[in-house]
Amino acid sequence: MMFYSKSSTGNLKKAFVLVVSIFGASLLHATPSFSGVAAGSIGVDGKIGLSEGGSDWTLPIALFGALQADFTDWFTMHAEIEMRANDFPLDDVFNGNEVIFKVHELSAIFSRRAITSTHYFSIYFGSYEALGTDTFLMRQFGIDQISSPLAKSVTNISGVPLRSSTGGGISYIARLDKAPVANGFYLYLNRYDGEKIALNLDYRLAVSTNIFTMDFIAGLGAPIRDKGDHDDEYVIAIKTLTLHTGINMFLGNKYTHGLLIQAGLNNLVLNGRDSLDIDENDISFFIEPRIRAKHLGVNVAAYALNQESVDDLLYLTDKVGATITLFFDNIETKSFPIVIGTHIIGSIADIGITDLFAGKGFGEMKFNVFLTPYIELPFSKNSKFEAMLQVGMLDVSRNSRALNFKVVAGYRRVF
Q1: What pLDDT is recorded for position 289?
Q2: Distance between CA 213 and CA 145 in Å, rounded?
Q3: Is the pLDDT of residue 370 over 60?
Q4: Rounded Cα gap, residues 52 and 178, in angstroms
Q5: By three-state DSSP, how is residue 400 classified?
Q6: Under a CB-based contact definition with an 8 Å cutoff, are residues 372 and 388 in contact?
Q7: Confidence class of residue 336 from pLDDT cuts 50, 70 and 90?
Q8: CA pair distance 138, 121, nearest whole angstrom
Q9: Which residues pair with 75 in a beta bridge?
């Protein structure tokens, strides 16, 4: 045990005030620089029944913004927010429509240079550098995006996460200078099973070279249960441990043949009555071989995703499926090259990956097919217009009982 005299306590207070004053003064006298992304989209989504007739149409609209503020060489802040309405009402704009407002990330990052490495200390809220997106890889190594074009979202910069880890916490990351390696730890709180709060500790390792990129996470979660009559002597009560892990790996590069492999496992209970019991929303994978010719690209993919990820995607509707993507990404114009392509998507409605191994017959499944041409038209180096048209034949195994039409147009600008 340590005792402080009145004078020593006063010295500690003075030192604390001095540190806070120096920190505040450095921020006040710094000239911050800003960069970010602003995007918006609007569309039409409709379904027409063929066997029973009738139709259902919605007007989805979305706005997205991301901002990075660099106050000094060692202090940066990030913010990402979205606003979305799945059906924007033309007849009643201010009433009768549920608008979703979501904060993707609020973070403060402190960095410090060492002799052979750079160290990053972060405080964050939201879905911070989630696995499956390219956010962590782009921030640490400055690489181009490796995520699939199918992972495009109107409310996210770099794809949709394999695992939702929305919460709040702290992180420490060290990036080596003489090797393309970054690794570190995350300590955070998030929601478990919709209601409970869980304490999590994750380890992350990332590598990036010209022909190989990998982002790996493994961690343990400890749901904090309500204290019972016999738990009064504990500050918190923890009975269950869960495992979550995932990998985002790409062999090749943007200009050659390649293979994208993404896989995630979430909330695997390691002890207790429900140990090793896996839910379909806790398993996800995305495998995409990529073939490149001079101007033509061909991607073939198979996927199984959780419902939360699918809800945020632009092209995919069901949790399980396979795709073929054909695109030309170097069509020369007088200003900037444009991208034209199409996704051919086959998927199974209303099931998850575990249902495929649970004896469910193919005759009971509803197969959907979607044809989705799209275009990306740059207006300048920092802005582009994007549009897609999707025509879907739903339940084709039963002679196409419905048709689905979706049109989405958006604009994105980097500043």
Answers
A1: 97
A2: 11
A3: yes
A4: 65
A5: coil
A6: yes
A7: confident
A8: 17
A9: 110
User: Rounded distance, CA 207 to CA 225, Å?
Assistant: 37
Of 151, 210, 230, 219, give the one whose Cα is nearest residue 190: 219
Contact 173, 184 (CB under 8 A): yes
Structure pTM? 0.86
Buried/exposed code over 362-373 (b: 16+ C-beta within 10 A; e: otherwise): eeebbbbbbebb
**How far is CA 107 from each of CA 75, 158, 316, rounded to the nearest angstrom?**
11, 17, 30
User: Are the CB atoms for 349 and 366 separated by under 8 Å?
Assistant: yes
**Separation of alpha carbons 277 and 242, rounded Å:** 11
DSSP single-letter state for residue 24: H
Output the six-digit token pair for 227. Answer: 């204290």
User: Using an 8 Å Cβ cutoff, are 188 and 167 in contact?
Assistant: yes
Structure-token pair, residue 47: 């379904």
124-171 pLDDT, tens digit per residue, is 999 899 888 889 999 999 988 899 989 888 767 667 777 767 889 999
Task: Please state the separation of Cα 160 from the chain's center in Å.
Answer: 3
- Amino acid, res. 293: A
Query: What residues contact residue 59 under an 8 Å CB cut-off, 6+ apart?
Result: 42, 43, 44, 45, 87, 88, 89, 90
**How many residues does the structure list for the chain?**
415
Paired tokens of 79: 């913010």
Q: 130, 165 in Cβ contact below 8 A? A: yes
- The residue to which tokens 């041409």 are assigned: 373
Contact 140, 175 (CB under 8 A): yes
279, 267 contact by CB (below 8 A): yes
Residues 123 and 106: their CA atoms lie apart, in Å, by 8
